[in-house]
Recover the amino acids of this structure.
């Protein structure tokens, strides 16, 4: 692993260890109370999920354009991040909604399009796993749809009827709520970067392993 | 592969059915978060089990994924090292 990986991993671990303390010091929100503090993990998870979908789409586009397997490995790692952080978003959201809205789930535009985005990321991985030879290019095409869905997820709360908080909430946050959010965002994005580095490394080693098996077959 | 695609299609159709069944009137959208400092204590909504569940779920999933990827990397590395040694040995022989 690169030299910077370990110090950054330690920093990320320390940041996650501090997040409960930072969140505990944030004030309660007036209408939702304690349960609103799910926000400090829910929103960073959602942002990482959307970012990972975009990274997967861009890397897939570059792979389709250049054929460079490096971009394919980046796209694969980003797709796993999208599935992981999408799951965190789709589980923490209902836990928050149960108390705040009185229901686990509603089929509004934001939640439904997030579910679709998450299923596209899953479809990418399933296609990679079971699609056979050439599935890298098919799944790269699928990733482009996943990326195209991201702006729709983001603006959906502003254009469709929903009880999801509007996008104006974050810019209007007071410092006492904004600082914990920024701290958690930094921790989640750092974690995403580290996990993607690790997952890309796994894909590189797997490619090396496949190359060795091929050379052994040729020798035999 | 066909079975997998059929299963995914069935799950998707069933999910959409649930969507139409659970259609409901929505409360109003919230546009700003306000700190609760001034509200009386009885209006604060304790929701510790949901909050703790959310945080524990996130941390467990992240730790589980990290563990899974680390183990995969260790396994592949040891496999690569073993095969590298085999290739070198067969090259000498």
């Amino acid at each position: 692993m690169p030299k910077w990986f370990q110090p950054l991993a330690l920093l990320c671990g320390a940041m996650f260890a501090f997040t409960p303390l930072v969140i505990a010091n944030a004030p309660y929100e007036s209408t939702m109370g304690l349960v609103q503090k799910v926000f400090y993990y829910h929103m960073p998870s959602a942002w990482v999920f959307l970012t990972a979908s975009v990274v997967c789409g861009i890397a897939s586009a570059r792979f389709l354009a250049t054929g460079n397997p490096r971009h394919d490995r980046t796209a694969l790692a980003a797709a796993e991040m999208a599935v992981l952080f999408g799951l965190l978003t789709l589980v923490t959201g209902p836990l928050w909604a149960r108390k705040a809205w009185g229901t686990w789930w509603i089929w509004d535009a934001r939640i439904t399009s997030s579910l679709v985005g998450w299923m596209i990321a899953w479809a990418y991985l399933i296609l990679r796993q079971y699609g056979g030879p050439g599935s890298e290019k098919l799944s790269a095409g699928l990733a482009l749809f996943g990326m195209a869905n991201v702006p729709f997820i983001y603006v959906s709360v502003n254009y469709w009827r929903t009880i999801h908080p509007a996008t104006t909430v974050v810019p209007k946050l007071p410092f006492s709520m904004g600082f914990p959010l920024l701290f958690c965002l930094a921790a989640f994005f750092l974690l995403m970067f580290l996990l993607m580095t690790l997952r890309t490394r796994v894909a590189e080693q797997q490619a090396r392993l496949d190359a060795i098996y091929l050379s052994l077959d040729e020798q035999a | 592969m066909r079975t997998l695609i059929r299963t995914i299609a069935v799950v998707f159709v069933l999910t959409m059915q649930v969507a139409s069944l659970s259609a409901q009137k929505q409360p109003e959208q919230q546009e700003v978060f306000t700190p609760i400092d001034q509200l009386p204590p009885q209006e604060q909504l304790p929701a510790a089990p949901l909050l703790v569940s959310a945080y524990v779920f996130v941390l467990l999933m992240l730790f589980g994924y990290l563990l899974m990827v680390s183990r995969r990397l260790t396994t592949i590395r040891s496999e690569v090292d073993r095969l590298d040694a085999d290739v070198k040995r067969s090259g000498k022989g």
In short: The mean pLDDT of chain A is 92. The radius of gyration of chain A is 20 Å. Helices of chain A lie at 5-24, 39-66, 69-100, 109-130, 135-159, 175-219.
